[in-house]
Structures are given as structure tokens and as C-alpha cells.
Specification:
By secondary structure, the chain is of the alpha/beta class. The protein is built from eleven helices and 17 strands. It has two domains: about 150 residues, ornithine cyclodeaminase, domain 1, CATH 3.30.1780; about 170 residues, Rossmann fold. The model has no long low-confidence stretch (mean pLDDT about 95). The structure holds nicotinamide-adenine-dinucleotide.
């Protein structure tokens, strides 16, 4: 048991500490626990301050700030999305985040969130699929086999029992990497030569590609009745993955409609096209999948409450694991109003 430090010293979870935390708990347990936190926060959706994220777009990508608060805690994430980064040895998506006490405004956690985003995105996708995917589904196509893909596969195995994967990526090296990383995790894995081949026999289709354009990863003829689509990669204006005809045949579930209308697959539809809110399904106010023939679509863009849940979960692990460093982030003069005096004493 580790004692957390005084308020002025902020616990910092580095990439190294995050990896140790995930490995010490086990990826599967981390995903299971995190999914519970995410569900818990979706169930109390109405208490959160909600706003579409603040996005700074450029030709190459986007930098976004994602704030929310439940009245007691405040969290935000800084995240980028730069599909061309991989060519220069960088991640497409990197992130870090802060959790603070609303009462004092003092941060209580600063954390890496690149790994945490992959975990929370996968956990959220699997939570959505629990309510939306066809019962007893075992086979998932994963189109786009980059940084997010293994996390998606493991969340669907842990939370839904998916144990057959059909992988496709325009870069076969990515599919081989994904298959290699998932070896020994209990999957039957097929690497496919096309998206058409990958969706053949799949009950769930995850699209998690990165390309800054209106791409057509799935065409209408590739999606049969009863399929659940977990569309993760389309998350920015002008960056989508599905042909609009699929959207017209699907029952569409979203996180926060005002944000998804800007960023999700539904940016291709009329602004009043009906969509359903995932939180209402999780809170038991509305049914999820209604019939075995429905095409359900989770139009995932990633919402601030999911990052808030993830930061809350990581913060709750600090005491028992001690996996953090103490960051001298906040000035703390003995007399609060003597900030300049503190500077003078340091010079002396
Ligand atoms: P990545 O760059 O590591 O991997 C993307 C992969 O997609 C690459 O291997 C690339 O070769 C492949 N790809 C590109 N175009 C393709 C196509 N037409 N067909 C098949 N494969 C194709 O990126 P990542 O970190 O895995 O992220 C993937 C996507 O997910 C990004 O677009 C990112 O913005 C998005 N994302 C969404 C959320 C969310 O909450 N919805 C969270 C994180 C990331």
C-alpha cells in the first residue's frame, strides 16, 4: 500500500508505469475492469458536462482537447490523429490526460494516454457490442491492423468470447504483426487478401483504418443482415470508412450525437437522420439489438467520458500498485500569496 503524496505533488503515470500497470494486472483484467468503469459512467450520463471536443485541424491531421466533469472530478485528454505519422516512425494517435478535483481545481493525476486510449477505445467497442452484436457471435473481421487492432481483438475476446479473427490491412506487414502479437491468446486467425475476404463469415466487422479521406472500406454488398459493425477509424470531418448506403440500412448507435454528427460516419447523412444514443441502451432505457436480422452500427468516435472513466480507473489503481512518479507540477509556497517570495528564496 502506497501513501499518496500531498496535494501539490501530482502523481504521474508514465508510459513505463502504464505498461507495468497493464502487465501486472493482465490486459484481460484491465479491459474487464475498465469496461465496468465505462459502463458505470455511461449509466450516469446525465450528470456529466458534455461538449463536442475542441479540434484544431490541419492538412496532415488533428489535435483535440476532450474535457468533461461529473461535478466532483474534471478530466481532459489531449489527443492527436495523424495518419501519415507512421511513415516517419511516429504513432497515428498519441495522448495524455489529466484528472482534477473540481473542489480545489488541483490535478490529482497526469497520465500517458496513448496506451490507455487504445484500451479504452477497445473496451468501449466491446461494451457497445455486448448490447448490439448478434448473440453467440464468435467471428470478427478486423480491417486495419495497426496500433489499435490487438486491443480491439482482446477486448472482444474478453468481453464477448470472440475467438476467430479475420484480418485485413492494405499493408500485409501490419496483419502479420497483429497475428504474431495475438499468438497464444486463444484466437483462430486468418490473414485475408481483401476486405471482401475478411468479412466473409464474420458476425462482427471492426473497421479501424487510418486515412484522412472519405474512404470506402466497406461497400453495401459486403454487409449482410444480422451483422454488427464496430466502425472505429472514421472519427474526423472528411475521414470516414463506410459507404453511406450501409448507414441507410443500419440501426446507428452513437456516443454524443453533437460530436458524432461532426466526426462520425453519420457526417455523410442528413443532420436529422435518426440515431440512437448508446448510454440509453447501457442504462436500460432502450433496447439494443432488436432482431437477429438488424444491421447494428456503433459509429465510434471516442467521447470524453470514456477517457474520464479510464483516468478514474488508473487513479484508483495508484494506491495499491504504487506505479507512478511524483511530479513537481504545482508551485507550493509556504504562504499561498507569497509566490514571488518562494522564487526569491530559491535564488538565495
Ligand atoms: P495505425 O496508423 O497504427 O493503423 C492504421 C492501419 O490502417 C494501418 O496499418 C494501415 O495500413 C491501415 N489501412 C489504411 N487504409 C486502409 C484500407 N483502405 N484498408 C485496410 N487497411 C488500411 O492507426 P491506429 O492507431 O490503429 O488507429 C486506427 C484508426 O482508429 C485511426 O483512424 C484513428 O484515428 C482511429 N481511432 C479511433 C478511436 C475512437 O475512439 N473511435 C480511438 C483511437 C483511434
Amino acid at each position: 500500500m502506497t501513501k499518496l503524496s500531498p496535494l501539490a505533488v501530482v502523481p504521474f503515470v508514465s508510459v513505463d508505469s502504464m505498461m507495468k500497470l497493464v502487465l501486472s494486472l493482465g490486459v484481460e483484467r484491465f479491459l474487464t475492469d475498465l469496461a465496468l468503469y465505462i459502463e458505470e459512467d455511461f449509466k450516469r450520463w446525465e450528470v456529466f458536462d458534455k461538449t463536442p471536443r475542441v479540434a484544431a485541424h490541419s492538412h496532415e491531421g488533428v489535435i483535440e482537447l476532450m474535457p468533461t466533469s461529473d461535478g466532483h472530478l474534471y478530466g481532459f485528454k489531449y489527443v492527436n490523429g495523424h495518419p501519415k505519422n507512421a511513415r516517419t516512425g511516429r504513432q497515428t494517435v498519441t495522448a495524455f490526460g489529466v484528472l482534477s478535483e473540481v473542489g480545489s481545481g488541483y490535478p490529482i493525476l497526469l497520465s500517458e494516454m496513448t496506451i490507455l486510449t487504445a484500451l479504452r477505445t477497445a473496451a468501449t467497442s466491446a461494451v457497445a457490442a455486448k448490447y448490439l452484436a448478434p448473440r453467440g457471435a464468435r467471428t470478427m473481421a478486423v480491417i486495419g491492423n495497426g496500433a489499435q487492432s490487438e486491443f480491439q481483438a482482446l477486448a472482444f475476446k474478453t468481453l464477448l468470447g470472440i475467438d476467430r479473427l479475420r484480418l485485413f490491412d492494405i499493408d500485409p506487414v501490419a496483419s502479420e504483426k497483429c497475428a504474431r502479437n495475438l499468438k497464444g491468446k486463444g484466437f483462430d486467425i486468418t490473414i485475408c487478401r481483401s476486405a471482401e475476404e475478411a468479412v466473409d463469415g464474420a458476425e462482427i466487422i471492426t473497421t479501424v483504418t487510418a486515412d484522412k479521406q472519405n474512404a470506402t472500406i466497406l461497400t453495401d454488398n459486403m454487409v449482410g443482415a444480422g451483422i454488427h459493425i464496430n466502425a472505429v477509424g472514421g472519427d474526423c470531418p472528411g475521414k470516414t470508412e463506410l459507404h453511406s448506403d450501409i448507414l441507410l440500412r443500419s440501426e446507428i448507435f452513437v456516443e454524443f450525437p453533437p460530436q458524432t454528427r461532426i466526426e462520425g460516419e453519420i457526417q455523410q447523412l442528413a443532420p436529422d437522420h435518426p440515431v440512437r444514443e448508446l448510454w440509453k441502451v447501457i442504462a436500460g432505457q432502450e433496447p439494443g439489438r432488436r432482431t437477429a436480422h438488424d444491421i447494428t452500427l456503433f459509429d465510434s468516435v471516442g467521447f470524453a467520458t470514456e477517457d474520464f472513466s479510464a483516468l478514474r480507473y488508473v487513479h484508483d489503481q495508484l494506491r495499491t500498485t504504487g506505479l507512478y512518479e511524483e511530479l513537481d507540477l504545482l508551485a507550493d509556497p509556504d504562504e499561498p500569496r507569497d509566490l514571488y517570495g518562494m522564487l526569491l528564496r530559491a535564488a538565495g
